[in-house]
Write a structure and sequence with these properties.
Blueprint (H helix, E strand, L loop, with lengths): L4 E2 L20 H14 L4 E3 L9 E5 L11 H8 L2 E23 L2 E19 L5 E7 H14 L10 H15 L9 E2 L7
Parallel strand pairs: 1-7
Antiparallel strand pairs: 2-3, 3-4, 4-5, 5-6
Length: 195
């Protein structure tokens, strides 16, 4: 089932997600719905807060990036197979130089900005069977993970912008929260006027 994606301005996007256990209600159905919602919106990641649930869960399928000819073969291979469910993720270490990449977000449509993030991230997480893993990602895969991880920490990519950039996009953000935007996927707007 395709779920509505929560728009910028909804308080759930600012909550730190709570850990979940294997008995979380209808978890497998929720994961399947999140993947379907992400694919429908042509996203490469979707976090539970973006569908209104303040829990530590996100899904990623970064395979569309594997087509990018500008990336190294190694990086394209990593992205081609980067399709996972992350439960209760916790960053252990971020290292390397910060580098810029133009990011967007399904909860903040029509805004894309360069965001600086460390090039490598090491983290622990549980998969959909609640098996625990520790992994290290580099480059674009690390960035996609860091972006989705921020969502379960109540952080948005716009928080990482300079104060000047924030002022420039302020009106656009207000319009998004009011539903004054056209998107081709279902959204829920916190400040939309009822018609």
């Amino acid at each position: 089932m395709i779920l509505p994606i929560v728009a910028y301005g909804d308080p759930v996007l600012r909550k730190v997600g709570e850990k979940i256990t294997p008995d979380y209600p209808n978890l497998q159905e929720l994961i399947a719905n999140m993947k379907e919602t992400m694919y429908n919106a042509q996203g490469v990641g979707l976090a539970a807060p973006q569908i209104g649930k303040a829990i530590r869960l996100f899904v990623i399928d970064a395979s569309p990036f594997a087509e990018d000819e500008e990336l190294s073969i190694r990086e394209r291979e990593q992205l081609k197979n980067f399709n996972k469910v992350f439960i209760n993720a916790q960053i252990v270490e971020e290292k390397g130089d910060d580098w810029a990449f133009n990011e967007g977000c399904l909860s903040i449509p029509d805004i894309r900005e360069d965001v600086y993030r460390p090039e490598q991230v090491t983290f622990t997480y549980q998969d959909e069977n609640f098996d625990t893993h520790t992994e290290t990602l580099n480059g674009l895969a690390a960035r996609v993970f860091q972006h989705e991880y921020d969502h379960i920490e109540g952080v948005l990519f716009t928080d990482k912008l300079s104060s000047l950039k924030k002022r420039i996009i302020k009106k656009k953000l207000e319009n998004i929260s009011k539903g004054k935007i056209n998107v081709d996927y279902r959204m829920r707007f916190p400040n939309a006027k009822k018609r």
